[in-house]
Amino acid sequence: MSRNSAVLVRGNSARASTRRTGGEFRATAWLLRHPLFAFVPALVVLAVRQWGAPAVSYGFAGLAAVLVIWWRAHPASFDRWAAPRLRSARRRWTVYRGRRWQRVLDDCELTRENRRTGQTLCPRVLRVRSVTPSIDTLTVRMVRGQDLQAWTDHTPALADALRAERVAVSRRRPSVLTVIVERRNPFPHAIDATPIPESAADVNLCRLDVGDNEYGGPFLLNLRGKRLLVVGASGAGKSSLLWNPLRAAGPMIREGLLRVWMIDLKGGTETDRGQALFHRWATTLDDAIDLLTDFRDSMVERQAWMRAEKVRRCEIGVDTPYELLMIDELAMLTAYGDRSAVREALRLLAEVLTQGRASDHGVAGYVQEPTKDVVDVRELFDTRICLGVTAASHVDMALGDGARDRGALADEIPGDPDHAGIGFVIDTGSRLPVRFRAGWVTDTDIDDLTTRCAPNQASRDDNGPDEGDVLPFPGTTHSANGTSTSKEGVS
């Protein structure tokens, strides 16, 4: 029986009335759900009576001028605070309400007809969030008799009706859905690799430009003091987030201010071209354990020096460079190797992840599957990026609970090369997902980086280290005056 129907009783029989609830009561209920439509006009009338129509008009004109100036003068703060609210309100009332919304759902067979009254029952939009220009997140209450499957079956038709790239639907709570409308792809073309700065003075490890975000600005990656986890299926573009940060920090590598410790357990195929850049390089599990042990020992040594010198935070220099451990295909180190080796690797990795921040020992891991069975130390990575993945559950595993419902449709990113490097990251301020695209790095770009930024170029052998070997770890001790002394002498 419809909730808008009365019941007439005649003798021992009962039937539902075909009359609808009075329009005045429906209007009252609508105003109760949208009190601003009554409050704002009433406030305007009171303001006109108090100060006069010209003063109120000037006030509205001034408010509009402030918004325009804010929009033009400081786009970053406007896009964060004002634009999502204004965009959400505009799209709610122009796209997702009224007869237009009802016609769209009716054409897509997502409405139902009340058999007694003949009234068309339309799912109601409870909330619209347009955090970014390209994605709308709707909270929709289904009509009685519908379920998630009914909506899932019609999402392709709904996407075409809304002229959107794609539509994704998930169940939020009983009778309520989350509908994500991706209106357009903000990255129709590949982005060039990050330019290599001229000098180390131009590099800021807290703001490495590695691509573009969906607002048209640079996508800035913070490596210093952070533990980075990049999740993405095969071919999703994880290598873009491996090489672009190195290109953005290339002069620091060349001048010995940044030392890269690389573990590539895919036989070295991904990183062989950049071998000259690395302070240490391992391509087998045994070598990786040795490298991890030495990296941990380097951290402990730095901590001991900091205690002796009463230093709480290191300044990056030749004697105290930033140490960056990069692990390509983390799963081979934390899940799929020999059990004893995996346990040792997890122990060492957990020690570094929990203690390395103050001593300037950072970690960047790259993995295809982010489950706890594969990456047991997943929660110790405080910066997580999700590229294209194969399962919707991987999005929340990578970015946190509810990330997909807030618009991080990483599982909807096509797996072809045209979409490689596109992903989502959680904004540290608003805690909302932001889409980005990392630059496309070619073999020529890697060769250029190696030629221009390889450290100690003159002292390297022409043939370089042998494949799969762990590069020699220089035994280093720090003197009381802060200089660094190696076995070969003072550096």
UniProtKB/TrEMBL annotation:
<keyword id="KW-0547">Nucleotide-binding</keyword>
<dbReference type="InterPro" id="IPR027417">
    <property type="entry name" value="P-loop_NTPase"/>
</dbReference>
<keyword id="KW-0067">ATP-binding</keyword>
<feature type="binding site">
    <location>
        <begin position="232"/>
        <end position="239"/>
    </location>
    <ligand>
        <name>ATP</name>
    </ligand>
</feature>
<dbReference type="InterPro" id="IPR002543">
    <property type="entry name" value="FtsK_dom"/>
</dbReference>
<feature type="compositionally biased region" description="Polar residues">
    <location>
        <begin position="476"/>
        <end position="491"/>
    </location>
</feature>
<feature type="domain" description="FtsK">
    <location>
        <begin position="216"/>
        <end position="396"/>
    </location>
</feature>
<dbReference type="Pfam" id="PF01580">
    <property type="entry name" value="FtsK_SpoIIIE"/>
</dbReference>
<protein>
    <submittedName>
        <fullName>FtsK/SpoIIIE domain-containing protein</fullName>
    </submittedName>
</protein>
<feature type="region of interest" description="Disordered">
    <location>
        <begin position="451"/>
        <end position="491"/>
    </location>
</feature>
<dbReference type="InterPro" id="IPR050206">
    <property type="entry name" value="FtsK/SpoIIIE/SftA"/>
</dbReference>
